[in-house]
Amino acid sequence: QPMNDTFVLDLNASNPEWRHVNVSSAPPGRWGHTLSCLNGSWLVVFGGCGRQGLLNDVFMLDLDAKHPTWREIPGVAPPVPRSWHSSCTLDGTKLVVSGGCADSGVLLSDTFLLDVSMDRPVWREVPASWTPPSRLGHSMSVYDGRKILMFGGLAKSGPLRLRSSDVFTMDLSEEEPCWRCLTGSGRPGAGNPAGAGPPPRLDHVAVSLPGGRVLIFGGS
Which residues make Cβ contacts (< 8 Å) with residue 13, sequence separation at least 6? Predict the structure, then answer.
């Protein structure tokens, strides 16, 4: 049963407790979506799978507002509906969405950007002469300003779908951004030639740390 509730855990409290946030205009229930922090208390939800199938909608919420209210952002020319994609945010105003699983189980390799600060936001596909293999269940993190890092996932390899441990990066500050394979073979399932990297996985979590570090935890 897809859910659409919102909870907060304040770790600054002496005795942290989960608090259910009473929000207005909650988005339709969903799973396989992404939730990203834009700037301070602003959050943005994209896509996932709901009762009626796959979604490609965008909702924003100011968690610190007196009466938190989800607001749909009607972006022009949105990417195809999807779930198990990855997303991150840039500059406190831009949502980046990559890959995932589309209708009929098709894996995706595209990357889209949406500036939610615009009066009439328009989705823009980031053109690239080469893209990493299509995948779902991967992670995407921002580091060093406007660089994004993609790790892992269940990736397409010919007729197969294999867990990946490869790392790809893209610098979105470049005039013509391009994907680069940072570690691994670039071929899903092949592992890391150096032998010291994490095993292939999907459905993990990743977080950027100060000093240009990215931490990976868990997965399957």
Answer: none
User: 137-169: per-residue pLDDT in tens?
Assistant: 999 999 998 999 999 999 999 999 999 999 999
Do 110 and 156 have their domain in common? no
Does pTM top 0.70 for this prediction? yes
pLDDT at residue 45 greater than cutoff 80: yes
Do 22 and 114 reside in the same domain of the chain? Answer: yes
Identify the burial level of 128 via C-beta atoms within 10 angstroms of its C-beta, where 0-12 means exposed, 13-18 middle and 19 or more buried: middle
Give the dihedral sign, CA 73/79/84/85.
Answer: negative
Which CATH number does the domain housing residue 111 bear? 2.120.10.80
Distance CA 22, CA 7 (A): 9
